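Work package 3, deliverable 3.1, input record:
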Amino acid sequence: MSKEHDHGMTIIVKTVTRLTVGLIFLYGIYIILHGHLTPGGGFAGGVIVALSFINLDLAFGGKVSAKIFSRGSTSVIEAFGGIMFLALALLGLRWGGFFDNFLHPDGEPGMLISAGIIPLENIAISLKVGAGLFAIFLTLITLQKFESEKK
Amino acid sequence: MITENTIPLFVALPLAGAFLTVLLKRIKGIPDTFGVMASIGTFVMSVFTVLQLETGQKIICNIGNWGGFQEVLGKIVGIQLVVDGLTAFMLVVVNLIAFLVAVYSVNYMTRYTEKWQFYSLFLLMLAGMNGVLITGDMFNLFVFVEIASIASYALVAFGTGKRELEASFKYAVMGGIASLLILLGVIFLYSYTGTLNMADMTLILAGRDHPALLYFVFALFLTGFGLKAALVPFHAWLPDAHPSAPAPISAMLSGVLIKALGVYVIARVFYNLFGFPHEVSLILMTLGAISMGVGALVALRQWDLKRLLAYSSISQVGFIMLGLGIGTPLAVLGAIFHLFNHSMFKSLLFLDSGAIEYAAHTRDLKEMGGLAKKMPITNGSSIIGAMSLAGIPPFAGFWSKLIIIVAAVQASHMKLAAWAVLMSIVTIAYVLKAIRFAFLGELKEKFANISEVPVLMRVSLIILALVCLFGGLLLVPDLRNGFLGNAVEVLTRVSGV
């Protein structure tokens, strides 16, 4: 048995998580990239992506998810998402105004690559929301560990 | 110089500063630099805005270039940012205090760890406040109120001690209720008028009767924004939250946050959007008078310096609300001018209390004494701030209180005028108590080795003290017309009072 089975939940939960977590992650990416065409967008997609990491964390214990996405990197990615969103908005000032859609002003309905900066803004939002939500989750479980050690 | 394309920078600059501070936190000196640079940038822009803006002029920015659709669809789609006289005035107040607080914090916040978190939250709060001031959209207003509030909840808890966390939790719960009521009000208004743009909303509301729904919205907004402004029945969070925060944040909260999120929005919504209905005038006068009394009388009994100042804020917001409630042009001028003065002297006094805490490590008036000999600049600036707060001529606070009281007499509210005079006297009493116990008397032995605070803290104190000393000059006609006059004009013209 590999060492990862020392932590986390039972083997049933781990097996199911291993099968589904990639799909959850991909579904999150799909929601983000199709945000301008179908319901969803950066916020909803970011939450789903964060949930896939939370799933890993719950099933396998903190060490496995920390290898992919550590606590320090959450704040960096979150700030990067914010900066990216703001930078895209400010770039619009060069062409027409704040938040001006300078890449593709006249989109075609239903076409994936025709919405200019909107999908890019969605990606920025998803980085911010996903990293932010995962950081909140990590903070909460740190507090819980602290409480249980005290008892 | 200031065009429609530069208006969004009032929000974008502090936001960029906040995010970059987080990204580059490991580089030494980055948090300080970004904090000061972003706030001085917005301050300089706000001064240019005031200099450039003519009476009655508006600068409008259509976000996302949605302005062209107005002609096609016949109504405004998308968010508008609007800068008029009142906004420009408030921007100067908020960004001046923010800049001085950022400079002060460079030295003061060495008392705490994680300075980058402080500056990024501080800049987020500034972005939220500037957003509240420049937005012309009801829902956008709610969003910016939330940004500023949530940043302030975290800043109140910044010390992470037991008292700080309790105060922050209380503040967060009450602030959350306020936000909920505000959101509900915005939803009802949207369902009634079909638009979120404030200018559109004003036109639609002016052409219709006032149904019962609108009175319900009045109640929701008065409670929601009253909670943010800490008017008396809704004030319970303030005496805990303001003293618990680090001193620069207490200065921001008492100095500008309660005004940008509370007083400014109440003035904007009830004067410009609803045309200043008579019922609201009565309620504002009543709440203002109660706030004045409760705040001042409770402040008299406090021994914690910052708590005393916090109760004093409640009392002074009462003065501003009284002026807004009376509603004559003179009273509005008094209210606007008192808002400016209160921002200056209350920020100064909170920064002074922080200076005392920095040097003597106490906030308890009973433990202080004789600090005047050791801290001459803190002492001098405290006395100037306190005299301005007490309304002693020729300090700035005297003129604004005088205008409010004269306006009350002119509008035949004799009892309110007398009550305001009485509460001014109580103000003098608690101010003298604070000065007497903190600075005068014998120097205690344990304070024999303390010294004056570092230079950047002194700079902020001196600048604010000078503003308190010479602030009365803003009433000189040439200066008044460009700064205070434009703000008063916005409120009185649209509401027709």
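Residues 117-150 of chain A form the longest helix (34 residues).
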